[in-house]
Amino acid sequence: MGTDDQVLLTGRDQRRVGDAAREVARLPGTRAQVRGRVLDVTDTDAIDRLADELRGQYGGVDVVISNAVARLLPDESQAERADEFIDVSNTATHAVLRSFGPVLRPGGRLLVVAGSLGTLGHLGPRVRHLFDGASLDQVEYAVESWRTAIHNNTAEEAGWPRWLNVPSKVAQVAAVRAVAATRRERDLATDTLIASVCPGMVDTATSRPWFSDYSQAQPPSQAAGAVLDLVFTEHVDPALYGELIRFGKVLDWHGGTPPVEQDRILTA
């Protein structure tokens, strides 16, 4: 990247966003202009305004990385935290896809950081059909149906797992697949990539409480490599387009088995 390039770091906390932007700007290899911007991804109107602003200022964007997550601890009630978790992981992902997809310039990258639990087989058979081949509208409807079932205490009866992370990750990947399906031919003709990415097991304050052994987990700086490899690759591999990618390989959309509820597995 060069001195004319702009990098925008977003987050909810103004101090943390500002500190991160200044830290990155001071790194020896940084040539681009780095700015911090306060953005709460649960505010879908704010996401739309930011996309419009960047289109107006720069004519669009070249790279979008959606990487928001709500921290959930093992001893917290999954049902009580469902709204926040779904709003951050799913409603926000849908908004990013809807708002930034149209302003992504040819040759650009739009990547949603998800996890290996995002494949369809990790859901129970009664709800898999809601996401298989679904449009973005249908994914959104399925997510809201799941949310309603949680509030009505009917989620397990309907076939939804108790653990929020599984339907949430499947829905993220399904949303990416839905958007990619509508623009695949055009994007591949211009080396544009839309995909979801699993960076592997990452050692963070969010993940540590869920692991009894995190000796194999990567620091965030190392895990970012899996994402940046896709950002900076010169040509898009058509086999990767619209898929869930882990370490450069596609994870089978129909693969996986429903995890045992008591297992503490993170999105590795």
TrEMBL record:
Keywords: NADP, Oxidoreductase. It comes from the Bacteria. The keyword Oxidoreductase applies. Pfam families: adh_short_C2. The keyword Calcium does not apply. GO terms for molecular function: oxidoreductase activity. Belongs to the short-chain dehydrogenases/reductases (SDR) family. This is Short-chain dehydrogenase/reductase SDR. It comes from Streptomyces bingchenggensis (strain BCW-1).
